[in-house]
Amino acid sequence: MLEQKLNDPSLLKQAGFINGQWVNAKDGKTFEVFNPAVGEVIANVADLGTKETLQAIEAAQVAFDDWKVVPAKQRSSLLRRWFELVLDHQEDLAVIMTFEQGKVIAESRGEIAYGASYIEWFAEEAKRIYGDVLPSTSADRRSLVIKQPVGVVGAITPWNFPNAMITRKVAPALAAGCTIVLKPAAETPLSALALAELGRRAGIPAGVFNVVVGTDAKAIGAELTSSSIVKKITFTGSTAVGKLLMEQSAKTVKKTSMELGGNAPVLIFEDADLDKAVEGALVAKFRNAGQTCICANRILVQDSIYEEFISRFTARVSEFVLGDGVSSTSTMGPLISRKAVAGVTSLVDDAVSQGAKICIGGSASNNGDHFFQPTVLRDLNTSMRLAKEEVFGPVAPVFMFSSEKEAVDMANDTEFGLAAYMYTKDHSRIWRVGEALEYGMVGINETAISSEMIPFGGVKESGQGREGSKYGLEDYLEVKYFCLGDI
């Protein structure tokens, strides 16, 4: 059925991509990919494992010897062509994403454009990898710094943004002159394989971009982290898995960049523009059915405007229409799995058992096994699991605070530090609170903060390194110092 929906059915690939070839599992195993909205099988994909991962690593190493010396302008042109092909096939890529991930088609189209922006950005940055001439330490010496690609990169990406989480790793790696072995989430392999096909059409050489699809993420990850050939691991996902990958990578002292869990607060002060705060919190909370690492996990509202905010916010949440993402009438799709629904249900039940009140929603939906109602909870306290754990679902817990200090203390009371947001018209408060928040990114009177031009990343247990912007290339480069004597 999915194939019939595509203008270019050849984008639907069901095998791994290694050394420029479509590869099936050596043992013939496959795994099913489901449409979470309707529960139907949409593809049977090759279930690759450690043997194929090793094959991909070796192919990437061979390709690296040639790719690292390709002139920057040529690498830039290939990436630019890849970017153009992604945009040319935006609708097909969006359809593939909606079928395998569930988000509504408008959001999928937006993600394809967003993901493509990273390819375009790093196509340009490939030509701007500059070195330095340092002040001389003596009259007969000169000191220089050059930057070189790290080498083979292992990338592991999640299911919630199956296009953009890939392009913002693959694009800078290729721009820097690295080669890469990608392990996408087993829930959403089709988006990754379609990107690889377009990269092949763009002329990216064999072995430079490899995709290992499979269900044994632990074994594939262990192969990537233990390999002495792989010089860097980049990962987006849970903090628990990120810590494990860092531990495994330590044995070969790999470079790592980690974009891990979040617990984003939205601080809404009494002097805020309430209309903008309501809309901003709505977008930040419910995009992708709440399955985003920077979504509003806790909404903190000052006591004097708490009731009014609850009223307005709940009214807006009531307008969501749950349904299959391919339907033009749907404004919110399903969660990725029954397990996700059970997890969200458990968090809501815990809060209600401790006195939280449901303003709207509060339970699974009758739309299907993977749907949960858009939910608003009030009268919460910090002992509830919702205050500490990442929700990853369409549940908006609204907490109350009295003072600026209390708001900052509540916001920082977490091991995570990815993104935070605040709404206020007080410019002094913007600086005070912005500097006090222990987060890598702070949105001020704005929650749509992500872009290819900004450094995306967190502090504390939300990770290390940055993706996007000029800083996003540094994680894929090594700095080498030259000392020239006898001048």
TrEMBL record:
Molecular functions per Gene Ontology: succinate-semialdehyde dehydrogenase (NAD+) activity
Keyword Transport applies: no
Matching Pfam families: Aldedh
Annotated keywords: Oxidoreductase
Leader sequence residues: none
Entry-linked InterPro entries: Ald_DH/histidinol_DH (IPR016161), Ald_DH_C (IPR016163), Ald_DH_CS_CYS (IPR016160), Ald_DH_CS_GLU (IPR029510), Ald_DH_N (IPR016162), Aldehyde_DH_dom (IPR015590), Aldehyde_DH_Superfamily (IPR050740), Succ_semiAld_DH (IPR010102)
SUPFAM superfamilies: ALDH-like
Aldehyde dehydrogenase domain boundaries: 22-481
Any one GO BP annotation for this protein: gamma-aminobutyric acid catabolic process
Domain of life according to the entry: Bacteria
Active site: 259
Gene3D superfamilies: Aldehyde Dehydrogenase, Chain A, domain 1 (3.40.605.10), Aldehyde Dehydrogenase, Chain A, domain 2 (3.40.309.10)
Entry's family note: Belongs to the aldehyde dehydrogenase family.
Protein name: Succinate-semialdehyde dehydrogenase/glutarate-semialdehyde dehydrogenase
Lineage: Bacteria, Pseudomonadati, Pseudomonadota, Gammaproteobacteria, Oceanospirillales
